Amino acid sequence: MKVTFTLLIFLFAALTLNAENGHDLWLRAKHTATVNIVCSGKSPTLTIAKQELRQGWQGKANATFVLKKKHNKLIKGDGYRLSSGRIEANTDLGILYGVYDLLRRQQTGEAITEQVENPSYERRILDHWDNLDGTIERGYAGRSIFWHGKDSLAVTEKDKKLWQEYARADASIGINGAVLDNVNASPLVLTTEYLKRVQAIAEVLRPYGIKTYLSVNFASPSVIGGLKTSDPLDPQVKEWWKNKAKEIYKLIPDFGGFLVKANSEGQPGPQNFGRTHADGANTIADAVKPYGGIVMWRAFVYSANDEDRAKQAYNEFMPLDGKFHDNVIIQVKNGPIDFQPREPFSPLFGAMKKTPVMPELQVTQEYLGQAIHLVFLAPMWEEFLKSDTYQEGKGSTVARCTDGSISQQKHTAIAGVANIGLDTNWCGHPFAQANWYAFGRLAWNNQLSSDQIADEWLKLTFKPTPAEDKTKSTVLPIVWNINFLKPVKRMMLESREAAVNYMMPLGLHHLFSANEHYGPGPWWAPKGVRKDWTPPYFHKADTLGIGFDRTEKGSNAVSQYHEPLRSLFNNVNTCPEIYLLWFHHLPWDYQTKGGLTLWDDLCYHYQGGLDQVRSFQKTWDKAKPYVDKERFSMVQKKLRKQCVNAQVWKDACLLYFQQFSRMPIPYNIERPVHNLKDLIENDMKRIR
Ligand code: GCW
C-alpha cells in the first residue's frame, strides 16, 4: 500500500515536472554545446552574461567567444556590437543585451552578421498597475508579483526568486525600468516600511539593468507627511518632496524616478491648489534632479465638461509647452481616448516642440478581451509608431517624434502597462506573453515589424522543430516546421484586426458595457454615470446615422492634427475608413468605398471578425501535433470562449444599432443567435 502510494507520488511529480506550464516564457531550456568565454571584466551583470552564454550557447561546440567592454562611438547607451565571435559594448549591460541577442539569433536561426544594435529609447519601462494590497488594476493574470498587502512586507526567498525570473525576462528583451505600483497610487508607498520593500526589489532587479520607479500620489505631503497642504508651490511641500527623494536615493541610489497621474479620474493634483500641471511636475522633478531622476507626468486628463473627451489632453498640455523642467517627460497614451482596439494616434505626438513626450502603450488587454482573447498587439503598436504626425513635414512618425530623431531630447522613453501577475504562465493567456515580448522588442527597436516579432516569439516559445536529437553535440541547423510557423504566425498577425472587426470596426470606439471593459454594451448608460464613460456618448447612433462628428463642423478635434492630416481626416472622402466613425457622423445609407451602405459594411465587418476567430480555431486545431498538450488545450479552450464572445459582440452591436438603422442585416450573412433583450438584461444582471 505504502509503496503504491509513493509510486503514485513519484509518477505525479514526474508528470508535473514534464508538464508545460508556460513559466519559462521565451527563455526555454535548450540543448546546448560548450563554449569558452573570454571576459576580463567583473560585475554582477557580467556574471549573468557569462552564465546565460554558457547555459544557452547553441553555436559550434568548444568555440571561443569574447565579451569585451570597449568604448565605441557607434554604440549608444547600452547598445552593443555583435559579431560571430564577440560582443563589444560601452557598458556591462550592453554586453548582457548582446548575449541575449546572440542567443536569440542562435535559436531562431537569424543571421549573425557584424552589426551595431542601439536602443531606440533611453528608458524602456513597464508600468505595473499593482496595488499595495496585491490586487492589480486591469490585471488578468492573478495577483501582484511585488505586493501582498501590508502584513506581508517582509521579503521572502520565494519573492526574490520570482523577481529575479521577472528581471531576467525583462532584460532578455531590453526592458530597463519597472514602475512598481499603480498610477492610482496609494500615498503609503512612500512610507519607510514600503520603501524598504522597494529597496529589496531594486536589489534583485539591479544586476539585470532594471531601474525601479514609483507611481506617487500627489497628495502625499499632506496624507503621509502631515502637512497642511500639498500645494506644489508651498515651500514646505517642496522641502517634503526633497527630503523624500533623499530618503529614497539613500536606499536605492539608482532609483529611476516618479510616475504621476494627477487631476485625472479623481486623483489629486496641482489643480486642486489652483496650480498647473507644470507647477506640479516641476516641484517633484526638482526633488529627484540632483540624483539624475526623472518625472513621467501623465497627460491622461479629461473632465466631465462639454468638450470632446478626445480633445482635452491636448487643450490642457499644449499651453504648457516649454514650461516643464528638463527632467520631466509627458507620458501620453497612444490614442486620444483610452487604449481602444483602434484609435488614431493622440495629437499630442508631434505637437509639443519644447517638451519631450513618451508613448504609453497598454500591454494588458483591458479593452481587447483581457486574458481570454488571443490578440497580438504588435500590429497595433506598429501602426501607431509608424503613423505620420507631419510635425516636421512628411516622415515625422510617432516613433521619430518620441525617440529623439526629430528634436534633441535629454530623455527619451516609452512605457507599457504590464500584463504580468502571479499566474504560473505570468500573463494568463499563453499568447499574451507575446505582447510582453513585443513591447520589449519595440521599445528596443521601434522600427521592427510585427511579422519579425511574431516569428521570433513563436520560435522561442514553442518548439516547432522535429524532435531534438539529444545525442548530437549541436542542434543546428534548425528546421522550423513551416506547417506550424506559417499559419500560427498569420493568426497572430490577423488577430488584432479580427478583434477590431468583431468589437468596433470602422472607427467605432468605447462600446463596452460597464466599467469591466470586456463585453459589449452599446446601450450602456445608467443614470448617474458620467456621460463620457458611456458608449452612447461615443457612437452617437440615432435614426439619422452613427459616429462622432469631430470635423470642423463638429467638435473640431481634427484641428489638433497637422496638415495634411487635418484636412484628410476632416473630409469624409479622404478620411481612412478605419477611422471613419471616429471622425464622422454619417447616415446609415452613406456609401462606403466598397460601394456598400454604411449599415451593410458594418454588418460585414462584424461577421468578418467572427469568421476570423473561427478560422483561428481551425488553425490552432491543426497546430496540435506541434504543441505540448497543456498549452494546446489551454489555447483551444480560450479560442472557444473568444468565438462565443465574438458572436455576442456581433449580435449585440448589430441588433442594437439596427433599432436606429431600421435596415435588414444582409441576407447572405449569418442571422443573430441572441436576442437583444436577453443580452441587455444579462448585462444589467452582471453589473448589479
Ligand atoms: O482606462 C482607464 C482604466 C483605469 C486606469 C486609467 C488610467 C489606472 O480603465 O483603470 O486607471 O485608464 O490609465 O489612469
Describe the structure.
It is a single chain. By secondary structure, the chain is α/β, with parallel strands linked by helices. It folds into three domains: 25-117, Chitobiase, domain 2; 123-455, Glycosidases (TIM Barrel, Alpha-Beta Barrel), CATH 3.20.20.80; 502-548 and 585-687, Alpha-glucuronidase, C-terminal domain (Alpha-d-glucuronidase, C-terminal Domain, Alpha-Beta Complex), CATH 3.90.1330. Helices cover 38% and strands 9% of the residues. It is built from 20 helices and 13 strands. The chain has helices at residues 2-18, 44-56, 92-108, 157-172, 192-205, 220-223, 235-251, 277-288, 309-317, 378-385, 398-402, 433-444, 450-461, 482-503, 535-539, 565-570, 580-583, 598-622, 629-661, 676-687; strands at residues 35-38, 63-69, 80-82, 86-89, 115-117, 123-127, 177-179, 211-216, 257-260, 294-298, 328-333, 357-362, 413-417. The strands form two sheets. An eight-stranded parallel beta barrel has the order 6-7-8-9-10-11-12-13. Helix 14 (482-503) packs antiparallel against helix 18 (598-622). The longest helix has 33 residues, at 629-661. The radius of gyration is 26 Å and the shape is globular. It starts with a helix and ends with a helix. Residues 10-17 and 466-476 have low confidence and may be disordered. The site of 4-O-methyl-beta-D-glucopyranuronic acid (GCW) has 9 residues, from loops.
